[in-house]
């Protein structure tokens, strides 16, 4: 029986930045070809691992500087707390359904993107979970149907009411909505100026004319009702380092490990399962099998279960051997032992097999 043991390799990529005259170093861990563990602060800026509030798991093309495929952002202190899930297409554009939660675990937003643009129905919520806004997008045309204030009062109902939003930079967009679209006079202003930055006029929901500090225009509207980067998770796309100093003492996270190293542990797994698999005719199989277990605070590995199995007999045989794996040094958070999930993926191909294993994020 031939087997190939594959150990997931970690490539550390270090970024340097200055914050309050103190140089810090950020390590982005690349797993395999393009998978990454990206340490982010609460505002989705890159930070040191020991200071991270959020860890992004996904694929990143370092040459083009874009995310690819599915991404998942989780709390650094609770891997079960998902903050963002979504997908990027081959061009690094947000594409498909995105679901966003705040650090308390309540829903913040859900909806879809198409080539980095909002599409379909979107729902957004305040931090306490109360509804904030509902809008729909069809062919890049926005229709705002409902908006509530923080006290729960509905200020836009069935697309009718006064719309007002303030950006982080203090830019104010305001005007009337009719049928969920701009009507009458709209302004984009800054409190420090004596006149609006942009003024536009609409009639029967159609743009009529506008004026900026540079002069008038009539070709098309320049106002954006819903900013494309309204949601904080989009900041991670810029891969910008945080400007907030971090001493690195907030969170100390250590994954589980084997006393003699990861290669030695892989050899133990290989010897254990080979004893059983040598008794099985694998020539007819071309499948994958995924098994998960839990590493307890004392380092013992228990509760093996099949996540994906094409043959229950083979699954039980492999688990029977894995149950005898030696204990590990457990994962810790700030020096305190904690539980951690462990996963093995087997690939069977006409009589041969290989496997990879990983300690899942805390």
Please characterize this protein's 3D structure.
The protein is mainly beta. The protein folds into three domains: 125 residues, no CATH class; 87 residues, no CATH class; 107 residues, 2-Layer Sandwich (Fusion Protein Consisting Of Minor Coat Protein, Glycine Rich Linker, Tola, And A His Tag, Chain: A, Domain 2). The chain has two helices and 26 strands. It has an 18-stranded antiparallel beta sheet, with no helix packed on it. Strands 1-26-25-21-22 form a five-stranded mixed beta sheet, with helices on one face. The chain has a three-stranded antiparallel beta sheet with strand order 20-23-24, with no helix packed on it. Strand 17 and strand 18 form a beta hairpin. Helix 1 crosses helix 2. The N terminus is likely disordered.
Keywords:
single chain; mainly beta; Fusion Protein Consisting Of Minor Coat Protein, Glycine Rich Linker, Tola, And A His Tag, Chain: A, Domain 2; 3 domains; 5-stranded mixed β-sheet; 2 helices; 7% helix
Describe the secondary-structure layout.
Blueprint: E1 3-7, E2 10-19, E3 22-31, E4 35-40, E5 54-61, E6 66-75, E7 82-88, E8 96-101, E9 107-114, E10 117-125, E11 131-138, E12 141-148, E13 154-157, E14 160-166, E15 171-178, E16 181-190, E17 198-203, E18 206-212, E19 215-217, E20 253-254, H1 262-277, E21 288-295, E22 301-308, H2 312-322, E23 331-333, E24 336-338, E25 340-349, E26 352-359
Parallel strand pairs: 1-26
Antiparallel strand pairs: 2-3, 3-4, 4-5, 5-6, 6-7, 7-8, 8-9, 9-10, 10-11, 11-12, 12-13, 13-14, 14-15, 15-16, 16-17, 17-18, 18-19, 20-23, 21-22, 21-25, 23-24, 25-26
Helix pairs in contact: 1-2
